[in-house]
TrEMBL record:
Alphabetically ordered keywords of this record: Cell membrane, Membrane, Transmembrane, Transmembrane helix
Organism: Rhizobium alvei
Domain of life: Bacteria
Keyword Cell membrane assigned: yes
Membrane topology per record: Multi-pass membrane protein
Protein name, per record: DMT family transporter
Coiled-coil annotated residue ranges, if any: none
Compartments (UniProt record): Cell membrane
TM helices/strands, residue ranges: 33-54, 66-87, 99-116, 123-139, 151-171, 178-199, 214-231, 243-260, 266-285
Domain EamA: 7-139, 148-282
Length: 300
């Protein structure tokens, strides 16, 4: 798979996640955040399980315990990110949540420098700033006073960044991307359900009413999209992946307009354009430089 194809998979992932914001917001009307996190990721586990079993039969090497532990750690990062985001939606708006979650675009390159001592391509920095600025304009440029939900979503952005970074580290060297997906979903699903049993009441009627949202979030937002993320990140860098995944805010606005009748103003369209430009330059500039070093003409 080429880097361009991998980044297109990540763009599709972002589109699915963008529609998932609508499902997450509507599900909270009838069930608690922990029950929603647990059920959606348990559904995602059963989506990924057949693929993981098929993969295991094709891979000749035994499944090492150290590899399983790294997959477990990725699952914990996913659980922390999903839980804090879902709790944040209780006391913040979808607009604020999408903006603050998008901060992982900046967090991933910073983590790469701090923990990996690895400087990303220079274009990542202006592209990340441009993408975050675009998300801000997409939000209308007016964030209300920070609430507990806003602060939780900032914490959520840190954990999303950690999850993206860990997948970027371990997925390229692993021959078991489906096992990675299945294990992180199982850790997140069981973790969410265990906490829900302790801390939240449950209503069967509420779960039934939210079933369409649970199935969409479980099958598509969690199952399909996170599998595409793992596959895509095997062939691209974590900072570039963060840029493409950040476009979920753009898609969130689009699906909000289509499904909920929401509309964005001129500033929102400016933000969409800025995010699109960020994705284009992070894709094109490294390719142009590589072609230039190889002595390949880039003028046609």
């Amino acid at each position: 798979m080429t880097r361009i194809q991998a980044n297109m998979l990540l763009l599709l992932t972002a589109a699915i996640w963008g529609a998932g914001f609508v499902a997450q917001n509507q599900a909270m009307e009838t069930m608690g955040p922990l029950w929603f996190v647990g059920t959606r990721f348990l559904v995602a586990f059963f989506v990924a399980l057949p693929l993981a079993i098929f993969e295991d039969r094709r891979v000749q090497e035994p499944f090492r315990g150290r590899e399983a532990l790294t997959f477990f750690a990725i699952g914990l990062a996913l659980l922390a990110g999903a839980t804090t985001q879902q709790f944040g939606l209780l006391t913040t708006t979808v607009t604020n949540s999408s903006f603050l979650t998008g901060l992982y675009v900046i967090i991933v390159p910073l983590m790469s420098v701090i923990f990996l001592r690895k400087m990303p391509h220079w274009i990542i920095w202006p592209a990340a700033i441009l993408a975050v600025s675009g998300i801000y304009f997409l939000s209308g440029g007016q964030l209300s006073s920070l609430t507990t939900g806003d602060l939780l979503t900032v914490v959520c952005a840190f954990f999303w960044g950690l999850q993206v970074l860990l997948v970027g580290i371990f997925a390229p060297g692993s021959r078991r991307p489906m096992a990675l997906s299945a294990i992180q979903f199982l850790v997140c699903g069981l973790g969410g359900l265990l906490m829900a049993i302790v801390f939240e009441p449950v209503s069967l009627d509420g779960v039934i009413q939210a079933l369409p949202e649970i199935l969409y979030a479980g099958v598509f937002s969690s199952g399909v999209a996170f599998i595409l993320q793992v596959i895509g990140q095997r062939w691209t860098t974590a900072p570039q992946a963060a840029i493409f995944l950040s476009s979920e805010s753009l898609f969130g606005a689009l699906f909000g307009a289509i499904l909920l009748g929401e509309r964005i103003g001129l500033m929102g369209y400016v933000g969409c354009g800025m995010i699109f430009v960020a994705m284009i330059i992070v894709e094109v500039v490294p390719e142009l430089r590589k072609n230039s070093k190889n002595g390949v003409s880039t003028t046609g």
